Amino acid sequence: MNARTKLAALLAAAPLLITAAAHAQDPAHATEYRMQHPGNGPGGEPRVAFLVHRLGSDHAEGISTLDMNGDGFVDLLSGAYWYENPGADGGEWKRHQFRTVGMHNEFVSDCGEWIVDVDHDGLPDLVTTGWITNGLWWYRNPGPKATAAGEMWKAEKITDSYDTEGGAFADIDGDGVPELITGKRYRGHSGADPGSYDPIVVYAYKLPTKELFAAGADPGFTRFALSVNGTASAGTQFVAADFDHDGDIDLASAGKLGVHVFENLKVVKVPKSVREATQPLNRDWPFPGEGKEVEQEEEPGTTK
Ligand SMILES: [Ca+2]
Ligand SMILES: [Ca+2]
Ligand SMILES: [Ca+2]
Ligand SMILES: [Ca+2]
Asked: What is the predicted pLDDT for the residue at 257?
């Protein structure tokens, strides 16, 4: 590229740069800009920010995705419930029950769940297993209409399997390069595991490139924090999909503090009104014993 071509390219990019800079300065866009441009991660690696949504506090372990009501937006399944994707504008993920799951104290017998059309009727079914209850099971999908109307899915046993704490389900012909995500499992084994009460974290690790591996030195995995000290944790599974169809890949996990959606902020199309309606701020003030509402006092001579 000669100097003239370079200058032309810079000039062509200028409106974009000016728009971004203006958004950074403009108070109406400042938060949006900051969330979408969180700065570089460890080692100067570019990264994206995620906004974590807690969908419920029921304890959960396995998690999977399927468009349960046939509206074109993939929904989340975890244990006895499915969570209805609110769609492109965001909002509340409504919880519905669609099956029963064995419970034992704080444990739910759902250490893994996978979507596959077991009976080849064109409707994807749910295959699941867990520690508490014996068996590998599949639940027959009665179709989006029946599911949306509240019909419970029927369980069919595949085989005996005792004390099953997980599993893997894979297309062994696949060649995709895996989105490696891990985190802390809150109260692992009822609190008996080392680190059971450490701050809860969810991290993503960027896999080293082929070139770094070929170079022979320790390639290293770059770690990015997705959630630190929040309630989002790792159960036995993560799922990744573009839940809101805005073009970026979102994540979801299930754990003993509930199901959480990690909304990718690389692209944001959720209206401000929805953000206001779904924020966790408790507006029911004054709180008990807090005092009473008073007028804000201004220094004499100050105009409001
Ligand atoms: Ca749906
Ligand atoms: Ca089926
Ligand atoms: Ca998305
Ligand atoms: Ca997004």
From this structure: 83
Q: Is the pLDDT of residue 97 over 90?
A: yes
Report CA(70)–ligand 1 centroid distance (Å): 5
Distance between Cα 74 and ligand 3 center (Å): 11
Q: Are residues 75 and 69 in contact, defined by beta-carbon separation less than 8 angstroms?
A: yes
Give the pLDDT confidence of 194-210 residue by residue, as tens digits. 556 677 767 766 666 66
Q: Are 275 and 269 in contact (CB under 8 A)?
A: no
Total residues belonging to the chain: 304
CA 236 to centroid of ligand 1, rounded, Å: 23
Give CA–CA dist 228/231, Å, rounded. Answer: 9
Structure token digits, residue 62: 């396995």
Round to whole Å and give the CA distance between 180 and 185: 16
User: Any idea what DSSP says for residue 275?
Assistant: H
Q: What separation in Å is there between the alpha carbon of 5 and the centre of ligand 4?
A: 34
How large is the greatest C-alpha to C-alpha distance in the chain, in angstroms? 81
In this prediction the pTM is: 0.68
